[in-house]
Amino acid sequence: MRILIAEDYPILANGLIKAFKAADYAVDHAGTGIEADNLIASERFDVIILDIGLPEIDGYEVLKRLRRRGCKTPVLLLTAHDAVQDRVKGLDLGADDYLTKPYDLPELEARVRALIRRGHSGGSAELTHGNLVLDMAGRRATVNQAPLELSAREIGVLEILMLRAGRVVSKEQIAEQIYSLGEEVGANAIEVYVHRLRKKIETAALTIRTIRGLGYLLEKPKHD
Amino acid sequence: MTKARNLRTRLLLWVSSPLIALWIASSWIDHDIATGFVNLTYDRALLDTALDLGRNVREVNNKLSIDLPTTVIDMLVSGEEGQRLFYRANSPSGDLIAGDSDLPKPPKSAQTERITYYNSTYHGAPIRAVAVRSPVQPGTGKGSVLIEIAEHTEGRNSYAQQIMLRMIIPQGILVILAILSIWFGVGLALQRLQVIQNDIEQRSHIDLSPIERDSVPSEIQPLIDAMNGLLSRLNAALSLQHQFIADAAHQLRTPVAAIKAQTELAQRQAQSPEVLATLNYLVNAADHAGHLVNQLLTMARAQPGANRHIQLESVDLVQVTRNVTEDWVPQAIQRNIDLGFDQLSENLPLIMADPDLIRELLSNLIDNAVHYTPDNGRITVRVYQSLNEIALEVEDSGPGIPEQERLQVFQRFYRVPGTNSNGCGLGLAIVHEIASSHHARVSIDDGPQGIGATLRVYFKQTTSI
Hints:
heterodimer; A: alpha/beta; Rossmann fold; Arc Repressor Mutant, subunit A; 2 domains; 5-stranded parallel sheet; B: Beta-Lactamase; Heat Shock Protein 90; 3 domains; 5-stranded antiparallel sheet; 5-stranded mixed sheet; rod-shaped
């Protein structure tokens, strides 16, 4: 995997380079916008980590230019600004993800891995969560390669929880997911589905938490 | 001018003092005019009577006598007190012919002048008299009879007074009317200033928009213009200050990110537990610094200056609250805190607010609760209708906030003594700042059964800022 780190603050750049090199990435570094733009134009990267506040030309401009050239490499923007309009501007220009300084190194690494996965699978139909794998196209789930006996609605519930792992999923969102399968369901029914699902995936190392008044949350596995 | 006095009293003093002085002066003049005319008339009447008497002096057998007409006798004798006349007629040799012998003597000039007026006292009261020399038989050289007529001055004085009063009283009424109309007229004119005063009093401390000037009297407009000038300079200065804080915070983010990245990297390479412990402290400190930087930015943003005004729009408080609470769930789960949401009222009306600022407000409330709630604790966020307000409530199972600390916790960088020092002390200040910019009020209470704290923000239902 080859990544470009475009960050002008040397101590931060140095830390990121060492971290990704330690994780066996091939890392290139650009200290200015022009440098980054030239590297992107001439080399092929799997992910670009782009700071917005680059000298000469800023990160937005670098992003605009690379997208104009038709480059589809996933871009993760780093910024010292967290105003909503900054975020919207970055995403509108074609950024794939966005992190505000200061951030946790593991968080940055996880997001880079996610971008690489997305870039390579091209929207794979398989979701993996610890030892549980959900085949979205085949509507099948397995734990350690052993198939689970799940109904279509339970698969639907599991799918939306896995798609939003680590985030709260409301009962309404789950209901919408199942409704699309041709049946209207009430809040009580959702509780029943989640209860059954919990029992059936006991063998998998994952926890579905009930969040009072908000919905459910599939806890992220301890080691991603 | 050294002592501040209200404009109304000052105007009244300036206008009423000359008016009253004029009134007094004119009374003086009126008095002179009235006495002048009255004296002229009364003297004329005295003279007529004296001349009448003179014409009635007869010489019979070398003896002089006065043949008085009945009308004159009536007047001389039976005149009412104050209108009664006194008289004396002396022969050319100086003998009394008729009348009151004890009438005071006329001045010397009466021996030579034909008519002499004079003042004197008679029976202890002031009198006015006229002495007329009337020839006994004109052309005979028999000399002149001296006739004196006198009356008390009381009658003419009271008449003069009456005339004067009739002149002074209407003038006095005019003066009083003028003073009253000034008092009420100025009061009416000053009501516009009252409106401006209310306008300024009702402003929140962050509202530095210009004061409306078009409806105030033109004399006051320069003052309003000057105040607006000051407000706009103040606004610019505050904006600069907020901009500086925001810029400084942005500048700090990158080095803080660098410290974190390098320290986290070192954590992975650390061999000894002592070094690891030190690095853990470093990461915590870097996190704390990052948090502080974020809160400084929020603080600067919550105080709008010239460049950024509060963007009011209809906000569904339930939706915003759900979203923000959801965002905090993962962090709460890490410490096994049961963070939940409870919508107590259905169909809550929308509020007028800046959605970004409301998110910050709630985020800081929950942050504060998560910070002080121990592991395995419980936090509940509620939204409900409270009379004509909409309440946003965050209840935690932390140590609570002692009653005597409840006012201070909203101050910047204040920390409740004895609590762990990892918070940065800006969260509740931000809550307070945003609430007051939305004319919302904030309260702190004990949690249920005296455990933990409950913080509430009450939003006005139809907020108009």
